[in-house]
């Protein structure tokens, strides 16, 4: 057995220029008294290999010995240590670009485009729940259509909408990776869709209470609690639950509720605030809610913040109703269609929907506030059991 550990710390520090062996193939090549490099000489597959282990004094004698033993062990497995080190380097580089890291970077870069900077997590959650558990630790350059197909196949038909969102987000991540200069297959998601086939699942509409039944349900919300008042305002205004839950006293002025653009959902042009004309009944609900507001929010939760998204839904569940709060928007829209002659653009604007193309909207800049005020008052009259005959909103 060849002698090893021939060198000492003092010898290494004081040696002049030259080559000094430590044994076992480890050598120190000194250019001068202060600088040098460590070299490991090995024979693999009958071929002599010279492997650099780092510069001296940056790499100490102890560190050089540990590194040398690591690569000797590789040689004992009949592997080329230089090729193995290069393979490890490439793998390390690939690991810096795992899908989980790319997806977070893509999310961060798009926060400004998302409502509330994406704090609700709706953009990221399809990836987080259905893609990253399987592909998160895979280098993004390695992901192909087979990986994507196998990952989304379990939910492709059963949770079609979620699966489509996950596929779309994954496509954005691949484009983001390409923009970073990584070698990815930008057509991988398109190929995966072809492999998965057309989705069989048909989306279900949120159950809605038939509009003739709305007045009796509204009348039952008579306890003056936070959830009762919130549901009453939601019904009277046909607004989504989010803006209702986050309603703040500062948003109401002169019979108009102005919803900030950042909490408006479903509007492609949601760069402007959205105005809601308030009926007499809605104003009464708001005044009642102000008496129990906290920090200006009309519908505070018991502990902190505002009531949750599930608060109103659970109230309806406890009453064994299939309908959900969001369904009152459908109830309102059906009432409009069946009992009034309201123009389409007025009715759709009441729901905060965008009507017409970009050019048409550029020329038609009205939000039909006065016409909507008449319609919302008639709806409130119907809901509160006052006379509400068929009316023309011209």
From TrEMBL:
Encoding gene (name): intA_2
Keywords attached to this entry: DNA integration, DNA recombination, DNA-binding
InterPro entries reported for this sequence: DNA_brk_join_enz, Integrase-like_cat_sf, Integrase_catalytic, Integrase_DNA-bd_sf, Integrase_DNA_bind_dom, Integrase_recombinase_N, Phage_int_M, Phage_Integrase
GO biological process: DNA integration; DNA recombination
Protein name: Prophage CP4-57 integrase
Assigned protein family: Belongs to the 'phage' integrase family.
Gene3D superfamilies documented for this protein: 1.10.150.130, Integrase, DNA-binding domain, Intergrase catalytic core
GO terms for MF: DNA binding
Alphabetical list of PROSITE patterns matching this protein: TYR_RECOMBINASE
Pfam name, any one: Phage_integrase
Cross-referenced PANTHER family: PROPHAGE INTEGRASE, PROPHAGE INTEGRASE INTS-RELATED
Domain Tyr recombinase: 204-376
């Amino acid at each position: 057995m060849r002698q090893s550990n021939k060198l000492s710390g003092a010898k290494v520090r004081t040696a002049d220029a030259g080559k000094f062996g430590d044994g076992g193939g480890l050598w120190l090549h000194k250019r001068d008294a202060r600088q040098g490099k460590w070299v490991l000489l090995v024979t693999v597959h009958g071929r002599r290999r010279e492997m650099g282990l780092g510069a001296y004094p940056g790499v100490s004698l102890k560190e050089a010995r540990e590194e040398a033993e690591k690569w000797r062990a590789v040689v004992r497995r009949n592997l080329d240590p230089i090729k193995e080190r290069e393979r490890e380097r490439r793998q390390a580089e690939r690991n810096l670009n795992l899908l989980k890291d790319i997806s977070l970077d893509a999310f961060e870069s798009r926060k400004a485009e998302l409502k509330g900077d994406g704090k609700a997590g709706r953009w990221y959650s399809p990836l987080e729940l259905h893609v990253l558990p399987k592909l998160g630790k895979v280098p993004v350059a390695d992901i192909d259509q087979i990986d994507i197909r196998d990952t989304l196949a379990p939910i492709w038909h059963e949770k079609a909408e979620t699966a489509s969102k996950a596929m779309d987000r994954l496509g954005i991540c691949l484009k983001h990776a390409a923009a970073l200069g990584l070698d990815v297959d930008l057509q991988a998601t398109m190929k995966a869709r072809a492999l998965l086939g057309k989705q069989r699942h048909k989306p279900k509409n949120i159950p809605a209470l038939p509009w003739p039944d709305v007045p009796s349900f509204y009348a039952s919300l008579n306890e003056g609690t936070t959830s009762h008042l919130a549901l009453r305002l939601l019904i009277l205004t046909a607004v989504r639950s989010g803006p209702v839950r986050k309603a703040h006293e500062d948003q109401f002025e002169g019979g108009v509720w102005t919803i900030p653009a950042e909490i408006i959902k479903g509007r492609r042009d949601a760069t402007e605030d959205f105005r809601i004309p308030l009926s007499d009944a809605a104003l009464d609900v708001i005044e009642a809610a102000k008496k129990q507001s906290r920090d200006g929010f009309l519908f505070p939760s018991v502990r902190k913040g505002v009531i949750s998204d599930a608060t109103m839904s659970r109230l309806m569940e406890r009453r064994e109703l299939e309908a959900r709060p969001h369904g009152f928007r459908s109830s309102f829209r059906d009432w409009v269609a069946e009992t009034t002659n309201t123009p389409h653009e007025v009715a759709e604007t009441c729901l905060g929907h965008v009507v017409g193309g970009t050019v048409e909207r550029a020329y038609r800049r009205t939000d039909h506030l006065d016409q909507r005020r008449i319609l919302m008052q008639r709806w409130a009259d119907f809901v509160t059991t006052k006379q509400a005959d068929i009316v023309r909103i011209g």
